[in-house]
Write a structure and sequence with these properties.
3 domains, Rossmann fold, about 500 residues, alpha/beta, 15 helices, 18 strands, Hect, E3 ligase catalytic domain fold, single chain
Amino acid sequence: MPKVTMIPPTKQDISGKIRVAAYCRVSTSSAEQHNSFVVQTEYYQNKFQNSDTEILVEIYADEGESATSDNRENFQRMIKDCHRGKIDRIYTKSISRFARNTKDCLQYARELKSIGVSIVFEKEHIDTALLSNEMMLTIMSQMAQEESVSMSRNIRWSIRKKMKNGTFKIPRVPIGYERVDGEIVIQPKQAKIVRKIFEMAYSGYGSRTISDYLTHQKIPSPLGKERWEATSVTNILRNEWYIGDTLYQKTFATNTIPFRQILNHGEYEQYYAENTHEAIISKEVFEKVQELISQRISKHKSDSTYLFTGKIQCGKCGFSYIKDSHRTEPSWVCRKHRRTASDCQNGTIKEEIFQSAFIALYNKLAVHYTEILLPVYQSLYDLKIKKFSARNQVTNIQKETAQLREQIHVLASLVTKGFLSSQKYQEQSAQLQTRIAKLQKELSRLTHADDEDDVLEQISELINYFENHPDKMTEFDENAFNCIVEKIIVHNENELEFHLIGGFHFKEFI
């Protein structure tokens, strides 16, 4: 009998181990960030170093004080790695560190569970691999969301307190300034641009003219773009910051997650602090410019006709038409053509042309609406009834889809437990996904009833309008235009296309 000597393994067999990832968030402070990441790395390395069942694949970390931010690149990378089959289980300290709110927490937990990846929340002692824990997950994630909201409120209270005593430091300084060693100082090159903007405004130039000048001079915008927008110029001219003062709380954050910054129109108190930093513009120049802006706005409101604003679109370049203030009679011009005539061939059209074309279209429909509108309405109504009768079919599709998704979940579980190879899983799940895609397409075709209801309602309104206004139109009727026209497409100076409610498109040739 031959003599056999066992040679012990020199490498650890990891084929049967569960591949584990850890997710954590670290402080925004660079020093604290480094220390926090090192501590958490050591914690998770020690946790799995001698484990017989699990092996640490990677630690994913994102910067930020809370999970309420959408900027979590490494979190998204971790989710992608899960879908690529690199991870079987995720460990994280708590629900509040993993998700922004209840919806996100459950969404990711279910998404990962469907591909066989579980999440362990250490603080709450929850493992999503156990189905009975889903209700507990809902409760805990709700608590985490409330905790995040409460923390946000406390931070905002602290910020408002600093605003009230004038010690709050805004996170970003506008063009013309920079922060050096924590202090706000004038940036000479940018300050020169700001002074030029105020100088032109003081001389009577409007924001559009100033923005075109800056663009032509190849001066980068505050966002670093080649083209300046008139709104950017207006924001600079309106900003009290350039006279050395600060108006705090121009915007405020909403109270619910996800938090959004919106303009403060009196919902919260504001604080005006004087001499918070060095001025670029004198107060006399600033006040004169504000007066000129107010006069320009007042004149624009008194002279402009707003009926067509936002309703005329260029068919060549897609830009909207704006009031042409250079003409003595009311006219509208393509915004792109107005900037550079060579960029778009569609030029200025008199307002009376749009009015006359609408009158002509209206009178045609007033005579023939029963021949045009009623058949379309009846066809859509018949289609709606037919789809309504297919409700049982919709239910069957939903049931089959749910069963197919459950089969994919079972396959993923078998892969995790080592009973099914990744190749077999890919093959079988691909077949199931193909069937699900076909079912979803059929379901989409059968469940457009809501969209059709909206269209039917609009067509009904259009029919009712002509039934209740049988008279021929001799003068332009603003009310009729507002009621039935959604927009006008200008194909060229001789061809207009009216888009009416209900999805009807009619061309009028001038």
